[in-house]
């Protein structure tokens, strides 16, 4: 059996008519930039997510960059984020002119360890980017109260956490704003690059909308200089076609995580993902920690099972951040995880029998092993 890491083709085939129509409609109307397709998606995503403003933009990285620029981040500032994430969470801090400061990850939940946050705050700190990595919510309540105490902004990087919740509050709704990516493999994925900002703050929403569109709500009324970061119209139409399925797809991911949990629970050489109490993990990724991780990964590949590592090198350990002067021992948890974590195939269309097959192969790998 061949099992890909994600199966975008299976999803396409399941909603082919809607997707084909969405693309054809955009072409028929030759409405290639902006227009009602973008507005419709922004309105429908806002309604479904339960947020006042959705501002479409070119990708999830731009969403973070635009937010930081509009929150006034600049040279001399520091912004705190987490040691294990995709590089967008930290490179946008640098793009905005500030210095990224990293906090280690939580040993059980793998997201920003809120107990270590306060020690990183100083007079230059302007804000925090909390990342709900893998679909697992951070303890965003605790992080928010630390931010409030120190007068810092809180942004939520929700690129991996569409419809994740903590204590009944969806990811992105606790901080001043949230950023989403609709990269094809994300839980809600376009057929190219796409992203958005969500916020309940009217003024911030207007500023972000302007900045993403050359500093103008309408041409030629440029109130400031901005950038060109538009949500592409074909992508917006595709996202609208997919949106009615997202809650069902999220449920299917959670169900598949449950299948993994029950098939893999008795293997002493691995740790299964632990869901933070009072949260809803949307399982963008199903990440295990495994002994002999690299060998297991190679073995599964030989069996036709594609896995991945998110991420093989923690951010502060990357050559790009050498200049910050950190050492791996400053981030003991993130550094240890980078050699243990493995993301197993995860997508809504994955079947119970495929999960059973993967579990069988993992058991076969460890059979007879003593360590
Ligand atoms: C995917 C991702 C992003 C960036 O999204 P793009 O749309 O690829 O720019 C940002 N942060 C995290 C955690 C991501 O996984």
Question: Would you give an account of this structure?
Answer:
- It is a single chain.
- The protein is of the alpha/beta class and 371 residues long.
- It folds into two domains: 8-103 and 112-244, Type I PLP-dependent aspartate aminotransferase-like (Major domain) (Aspartate Aminotransferase, domain 2), CATH 3.40.640.10; 245-367, Aspartate Aminotransferase, domain 1.
- It has helices at 8-14, 16-29, 36-49, 60-70, 88-95, 140-150, 202-212, 233-242, 246-264, 293-302, 332-337, 352-366, and strands spanning 53-57, 78-82, 99-103, 125-131, 153-157, 165-166, 169-170, 177-181, 195-199, 270-271, 279-280, 286-290, 341-344.
- It has a seven-stranded mixed beta sheet, with helices on both faces.
- Helix 2 (16-29) runs antiparallel to helix 8, helix 3 packs parallel to helix 8 (233-242) and helix 4 (60-70) packs across helix 7.
- The model has no long low-confidence stretch (mean pLDDT 97).
- The structure holds pyridoxal-5'-phosphate (PLP).
- Residues 59-61, 85-86, 88-89, 131, 157, 159-160, 181, 183, 193, 195 line the site of pyridoxal-5'-phosphate.
């Amino acid at each position: 059996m061949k099992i890909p890491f994600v199966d975008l083709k299976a999803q396409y085939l399941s909603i082919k008519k809607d997707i084909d129509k969405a693309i054809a409609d955009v072409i028929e109307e030759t409405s290639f930039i902006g227009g009602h397709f973008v507005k419709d998606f922004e309105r429908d995503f806002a309604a479904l997510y339960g947020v006042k403003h959705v501002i479409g933009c070119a990708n999830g990285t731009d969403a973070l960059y635009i937010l930081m620029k509009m929150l006034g981040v600049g040279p001399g500032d520091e912004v705190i984020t987490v040691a294990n994430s995709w590089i967008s969470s930290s490179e946008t801090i640098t793009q905005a002119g500030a210095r990224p400061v990293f906090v280690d990850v939580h040993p059980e939940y793998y997201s920003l360890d809120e107990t270590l946050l306060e020690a990183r705050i100083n007079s230059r700190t302007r804000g925090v980017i909390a990342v709900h990595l893998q679909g697992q919510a951070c303890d965003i309540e605790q992080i928010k109260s630390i931010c409030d105490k120190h007068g810092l902004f809180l942004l939520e990087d929700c690129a991996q956490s569409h419809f994740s919740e903590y204590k009944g509050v969806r990811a992105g709704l606790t901080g001043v704003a949230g950023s989403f990516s609709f990269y094809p493999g994300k839980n809600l994925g376009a057929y190219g690059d796409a992203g958005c900002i969500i916020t309940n703050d009217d003024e911030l929403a207007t500023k972000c909308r302007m900045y993403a569109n050359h500093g103008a709500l309408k041409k030629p009324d440029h109130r400031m200089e901005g950038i060109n970061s538009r949500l592409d119209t074909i992508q917006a139409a595709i996202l609208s076609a997919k949106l009615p399925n997202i809650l069902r797809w999220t449920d299917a991911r959670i169900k598949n995580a449950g299948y993994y949990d029950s098939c893999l629970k008795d293997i002493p050489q691995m740790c299964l993902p632990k869901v933070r109490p009072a949260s809803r993990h949307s399982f963008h990724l199903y990440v295990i920690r495994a002994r002999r991780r690299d060998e297991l990964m190679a073995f599964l590949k030989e069996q036709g099972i594609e896995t991945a590592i998110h991420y093989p090198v923690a951010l502060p350990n990357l050559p790009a951040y050498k200049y910050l002067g950190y050492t791996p021992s400053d981030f003991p948890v993130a550094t240890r995880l980078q050699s243990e974590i493995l993301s197993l195939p995860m997508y809504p269309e994955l079947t119970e029998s495929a999960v059973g097959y993967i579990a069988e192969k993992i058991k076969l790998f460890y059979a007879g092993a003593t360590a």
